[in-house]
Amino acid sequence: MQIIIVGSVAAGTSVAAKARRNDESAEIIVYEKGPDISYSICGIPYYLGNEVDDLSELIPRDKKWFEARYNVKMNINHEVTAIDPVNQTIRVTDLSNGAEEEETFDKLVLATGANVTIPGYVDSQMKNIFPVRTMEDTRHIDTFIQEVDPKQAVIIGGGYIGMEIAEQFTHKGIKSIIIQRGSHIMSSFDPEISFRVQEHLQSNGVEVYTNEEVTAVHQDESHLIHAVETRNGHRFDADIVILATGVRPNVTLAQQAGLLLGPTGAIQVDKHMRTSHENIYAVGDVAESYLSITGKPFYHPLGSTANKMGRIAGDVITGGDLAFHGVLGTGIFRVFELAVGTTGLTEQAARKEGFDVEVLYNLKPARAEYLNGKELLIKAVADRKSGLLLGAQAIGSEGVDKRLDVLATALHFKAKVEDLFHLDLAYAPPFSTTKDPVMYTGMALHNAINRNRPLLSPAELVGKEDDYQIIDTRSKKQYEASHVQGAQHISLKDLR
Ligand code: FAD
Predict the structure, then answer these.
(1) How much is the pLDDT for 83?
(2) pTM (predicted TM-score)
(3) Atom of ligand 1 nearest to the CA of 12
(4) Could you tell which of 4, 55, 248, 302 is best to mutate to test the pocket of ligand 1, judged by most ligand atoms within 8 Å of the CB?
């Protein structure tokens, strides 16, 4: 059997590795148009901010290593330019010399990833506006920073990558300005959680402008941008501009081959990662996912999912029956002292889906206060009808990742809120509290839903802390009030 894989970062290399583990005799050929393979894109911001010393640490495997380890033919600098789905062939160009060839496949896997959305005002001659996606992008940014020593960056886009770059540039002494088109940064979170992030960015010297859209850039005769202009007529000076504008699935080949795309614009796949052609599979950022809570198509391009999808496709094409279970939209990032994460549905998303929503804000120390446990906020969303947990967002300076992963696990197994209380979670004072914040979250939601105990205001909580220790929906109202009055953010104190 001849297996051809197009693309060799997270998803493509996972396909190759799993296929080889399952089948020693298959001929596996990988084509990658870039010079690097199997690198950690996720580490790019940390390299740019000098938390990673050497770029090679993000590229632990090269072509030679991969070929020796997995017995595959790894063709770097080779672009697949066309697929003939009827005759099951592909056309490939060797980018080092322009030579073209045709290759036949029994199984073809598209792992072509995603492309950064490039706004119309960008042209290829501009020297200091950069997407952040590949190792080549990273090398270009790195060289520019070393040569020009920029003092101020405009980061277009307030999503995960915008946050990480702003943090790392600030550490590097580059003043960062984030321009966000929507009403709040981190649009996959509820607004009041995003506002906390915004407040934290601002307290660390990052400027954040929401409801603003860059419409033009101003460059000098040597194609260096020195300012950007926004729809509202504002102008921001910039020595370097970062495009954190989001990504789109790279479906060029799929479209040319007539494969079906899903409503998100990514390639439609079944649970075995098979496309509308029985011998063509799609994995990673190019493939459509689905939200396991609703069963609906969902585009959530993450390295964690890409690796998973790759393993599943590698298994299935070599006779296995692994199946994809969907995603919860789980994501986490660090911004200065805060870790911020989400899993499952936000309140906004749950309401949109028509659930009878119960919401709670749970502010607890992440571990024993007498050991300096820091405050952790969990906002959790449940369905009043079924008692099922629907989602959670967490923010704090410690303990966020483990709570988020426990909640994601609970969501994966379709836990009811009362189940959270019964979890046998690890406790010792340096790590948690006797009842972990996750357990409190379950207890309070369970009380609110099943015993019809209203979520109490802080004043009403006095003397009942054991039962509740929660912050009621008042905090939401406070957020809304402060927002309506034009305040840009609310502080942790306001939420008490
Ligand atoms: P890609 O990594 O995009 O790889 C696709 C490859 O296909 C590319 O190398 C491309 O050159 C090649 N290719 C495309 N077309 C062709 C063709 N026609 N012929 C040959 N080769 C082709 N995810 C997380 O889970 N956690 C994180 O913390 C995180 N941080 C991130 C930080 C940054 C700065 C960025 C940019 C992304 C981050 N991600 C993170 C997302 C994660 O990196 C991606 O989801 C992951 O790289 C997707 O892997 P992939 O293999 O599907 O696609």
Answers:
(1) 98
(2) 0.91
(3) 51
(4) 302
